[in-house]
């Protein structure tokens, strides 16, 4: 039915808008705080734990936590 097609189109537009917003926010974060950007990329997108992120970035675990909260 036409209603379900409209719902799919609206959901696609919403998902696209969300993806654009995330990309824009990440771009700003990268310019403002490169370390926080890297923490977000590893924690959220790569799925690493805070401990593993600290190892990869050679940062203190508490610093990773602070960057994660600030981001």
Characterization of this structure:
86% of the residues lie in helices and 0% in strands. With 71 residues, it is mainly α. Helix 2 (34-45) crosses helix 3. The relative contact order is 0.11.
Indicate the topology.
Blueprint: H1 2-32, H2 34-45, H3 50-57, H4 61-70
Helix pairs in contact: 1-2, 2-3, 2-4, 3-4
Termini, distance in Å? Answer: 42 Å
Q: Structural class per helix/strand content?
A: mainly alpha
Radius of gyration: 17 Å
Flag low-confidence runs.
none
The number of strands is 0
**How large is the count of helical segments?**
4
Kindly estimate the percentage of residues that lie in beta strands according to DSSP: under 5%
| Amount of helix | over 70%
| Biggest β-sheet description | none
| Morphology | elongated
Mean pLDDT across the residues is 90
Instruction: Give, in order, the helices and strands.
Output: HHHH
Question: Keywords, please?
Answer:
elongated; mainly alpha; 71 residues
Short description:
The chain has helices spanning 2-32, 34-45, 50-57, 61-70. The chain has 71 residues and is an all-alpha fold.
């Amino acid at each position: 039915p036409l209603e379900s097609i409209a719902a799919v189109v609206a959901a696609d537009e919403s998902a696209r808008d969300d993806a654009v917003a995330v990309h824009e926010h990440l771009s700003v974060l990268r310019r403002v705080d490169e370390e926080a950007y890297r923490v977000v990329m590893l924690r959220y997108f790569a799925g690493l734990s805070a401990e593993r992120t600290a190892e990869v970035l050679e940062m203190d675990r508490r610093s990773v936590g602070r960057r994660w909260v600030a981001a």
